[in-house]
Write a structure and sequence with these properties.
By secondary structure, the chain is of the alpha+beta class. The chain folds into 2 domains: 28 residues; 196 residues, Alpha-Beta Complex (Sulfite Oxidase, Chain A, domain 2), CATH 3.90.420.10. Helices cover 28% and strands 20% of the residues. The chain is built from 7 helices and 10 strands. The strands form 2 sheets. A 5-stranded mixed sheet has the order 2-1-10-5-6. Strands 3, 4, 7, 8 and 9 form a 5-stranded antiparallel sheet that branches. Strand 1 and strand 2 form a beta hairpin. The termini are far apart. The mean pLDDT is 89. The structure holds the ligand Nc1nc2c(c(=O)[nH]1)N[C@H]1C(S)=C(S)[C@@H](COP(=O)(O)O)O[C@H]1N2 and molybdenum atom (MO). Ligand MTE binds next to loops.
């Protein structure tokens, strides 16, 4: 028997419990769709081939590296070499400059700073050898800036040496600045960094032989270290042995461990 009620199909207002269960359903459905999308995205990334330069940067998937390289290019354009890193008065420089790590400098007894020569790899296999005396005869530049390590500490420190660009000009290496990268390695080749050319020839980048106006101690990279204020500490190679120029990325110790190759500030 038909009740008049059923025919009219009156829409009864939902009870509180019904409203809650409906909202729960919508929330879970939305979550499931988003989670599915995230999973598919991850699978896509996971299945995509690794980048071609796997050994140099730590073998990220191609699409991920593409995004990272876009980010790098963006920062390289924004922070071009017209931008100078902030400098500080001498009074603010740390008296006890922190010594961090010493990869490529372990064989302290085997290394003789007196017979050290900087080796610059030129085209056609020729090697330019430069003594510390020749480097110290060039105009000296000093910088007091906030040195930053990726491990989370920073310190205002005072360095002295020759600007890398002045070194290049003096030894008539100008042609090499048309290349994309500079590579630097310790004499034992255990620590090595790759630098984009604009950062290497930045006016604040130094081949440093002094800290706090005194000769660099061995643990800070004597006889010669890199001070590159536009980069994190990892790129500031201590005890430079060789310098190379290239259009492909030179090998880089920390990039091989997955750190950002550019490591700019
Ligand atoms: N040869 C060499 N250079 C190096 C390193 C290293 O382990 N070996 N460590 C880098 C890191 S991580 C930092 S923070 C700085 C520290 O420089 P400092 O010891 O003079 O403070 O050196 C950089 N240059
Ligand atoms: Mo560091």
């Amino acid at each position: 028997m038909n009740t008049p009620d059923k025919k009219k199909k009156v829409k009864k207002p939902l009870t509180v419990e019904q409203q809650i269960s409906r909202r729960n359903f919508i929330s879970f459905a939305t979550f499931a769709v988003l989670a599915g999308g995230a999973y598919e995205g991850w699978r896509w990334l996971y299945k995509s081939p690794p980048e071609a330069t796997g050994g140099i940067t730590a073998g990220a998937r191609k699409p991920l590296r593409k995004a990272l390289n876009k980010t790098e290019l963006f920062f390289r354009r924004v922070f071009s070499d017209n931008h100078l890193v902030k400098t500080y008065p001498k009074s603010m420089a740390a008296k006890n400059v922190r010594v961090n790590s010493d990869i490529g400098m372990e064989a302290k007894d085997k290394f003789d700073p007196a017979s050290w020569k900087l080796q610059v790899q030129k085209k056609g296999g020729e090697i330019l050898q430069v003594t510390l005396q020749e480097i110290m005869a060039l105009p000296k530049t000093e910088i007091i800036y906030d040195f930053k390590c990726v491990e989370g500490w920073d310190q205002i420190s005072h360095w002295g040496g020759v600007r890398f660009i002045d070194f290049i000009k003096h030894f008539q290496l100008d042609d090499y600045t048309k290349m994309d990268y500079v590579g630097m390695e310790t004499p034992d080749k255990a620590y090595y960094v790759g630098l984009d050319m604009p950062s290497a020839i930045h006016p604040q980048t130094l081949l440093a032989y002094e800290v706090n106006e005194k000769p660099l101690p061995l643990n800070h990279g004597a006889p010669l270290r890199l001070i590159i204020p536009v980069k994190y500490g990892i790129k500031n190679l201590k005890r430079i042995g060789t310098i190379t120029f290239s259009n492909t990325r030179p090998r880089d110790y920390w990039a091989e461990q997955g750190y950002d190759y550019y490591s700019g500030l």
